[in-house]
Predict the 3D structure of the following.
Amino acid sequence: MSDYVRITTSLSAIIAAAQQIGAAAEQFSSDVERLIGDIEALEGDDKLGTDHFGNGFRDNAYHKLVDAGDGGSVQVNQAGKEAARGGGKGGAHLADGATTAMVRYGMADAENESGIDSV
């Protein structure tokens, strides 16, 4: 069963907004990758240290194993990186979905125009 949807702006405006979201998601992904590179440059023993405090932080916090969501586990530092990467992927998915939905909506509207006009 479908529901009636009233769109109060043009399809092109919605598609343009979706494209802006997609561009922002691309920029976010690029920024995240750059920042992850910066983080990875600081992850070595020379930065974290190999004394009691450095080893304790690395073993009990930074490299602590957490649930990966798939039945496995992953180090918390890697989980954080993957979560950050997910933001860009989510934005791109949203943009693609909104664009596809509006194109399909427009096609269905055009195909059924005569039936819609008779209502």
Remarks:
- The mean pLDDT is 89.
- The radius of gyration is 23 Å.
- The chain has one domain: 11-111.
- Residues 11-111 form one domain.
